[in-house]
Amino acid sequence: MKNYAMKMCSVKRLERTELEMPVAAADQVVVKIEYCGICGSDMHFFQNGAIGTRKAPPDFILGHESAGTVIEVGKDVTTLKVGDRVALEPGVPCGKCQYCKSGKYNLCPDVHFLAAAKPPTNGALRNYFAYPAEWCFKLPDNVSTMEGTMLEPLSVGMHAAGRGGAELGKTALIIGVGTIGYMTMLACKAMGVSKIIVSDALENRLALALQHGADYAINVKNEDAVEKVMEYTDGEGCDIVFETAGSPVTLASTWKYVKTAGVIVNVGNASGEIPFVFGELARKEVDIRSVWRYRNIYPIAIEAVRTGKIDLKHIEPAMFPFEKSQEAFEYAFEHRSEVLKTIIQVTE
């Protein structure tokens, strides 16, 4: 067997490079990576060589949405065996800091997150990968390995929904129905949110959302979003407003849609200074909550998919073979308004 990775040798350029075949340490398993999704952060590194001040190191390996099959097990591993299909949670925290010990390991300052530049941690766009067994989650028989790859963005959406207090009786607005917005919508539906409104400028995204969970869709190109939200909520606004587009403009406008005593959830993590109308927020006593990745979600996400509470099967990603990873990244950028997800089939 040979192990190859797609390394980002320069901005907008990937090259296939042979790596040593990994060997499992005592607490690791070796995973044959079968699928690797392209995330927005991967695209930022590919297009710009950086995300803000986080610069990609030389010969960086991208990819943190991955799943595959265990082919080797370390001597201390008892939870997995050869042949198990697993999804890899991409963040490996230190386990020792105050955040890890309190269960908020996503906030660990020393976390090694795949395809992240601080600290430089190479990703999963490779054939074989030795990875800590603790962060490999076994997939049930009725959950495909490709669905396992999509658990990563689903976990972001589920964490966002949890941060917003999504539950039966609540009304939610999701601003931006890209991958994360769509996953947030699926999570809100599974958690019982009674009325889900989505907004976007792309009709294809809105149509898909209406088919799979949204009650109302607002095309911001030709509709007044504030007017429509108030119409759909009897003039009260929404209990939860999720900003998932990552736009400073839409994040700054969230106060217009939120109900008194409601919650604004910043999922898209727009950069730069955001001007909020704090007088209006104070008058309504609104909470503003942020989202940083996720924590303790993978087992719950797997169970939700296994039981059919969340359906990922209807998502039809654009698929590319490993040797066409360059084309996959180019396609994901050029067709970002048309395709919800792009996935690379690394090995069969």
Would you kindly provide a written description of the structure presented here, covering whatever features stand out?
The chain is α/β, with parallel strands linked by helices and 348 residues long. The chain has 2 domains: 3-150 and 315-345, Quinone Oxidoreductase, Chain A, domain 1 (Alpha-Beta Complex); 156-290, NAD(P)-binding Rossmann-like Domain (Rossmann fold). It is built from 11 helices and 22 strands. It has helices spanning 40-48, 98-101, 145-149, 151-164, 179-190, 203-211, 225-232, 248-252, 278-284, 298-306, 325-334; strands at 3-10, 13-19, 28-37, 50-51, 54-55, 60-61, 65-73, 85-88, 91-92, 112-113, 116-117, 120-121, 128-132, 136-138, 171-175, 195-200, 216-219, 238-243, 258-266, 287-290, 318-321, 342-345. Strands 3, 7, 8, 13, 14, 21 and 22 form a 7-stranded mixed β-sheet that branches. The radius of gyration is 20 Å and the shape is globular. The two termini are 13 Å apart. The mean pLDDT is 97.
Which key features would you list for this structure?
348 residues; alpha/beta; Quinone Oxidoreductase, Chain A, domain 1; Rossmann fold; 2 domains; 7-stranded mixed beta sheet; 6-stranded parallel beta sheet; 11 helices
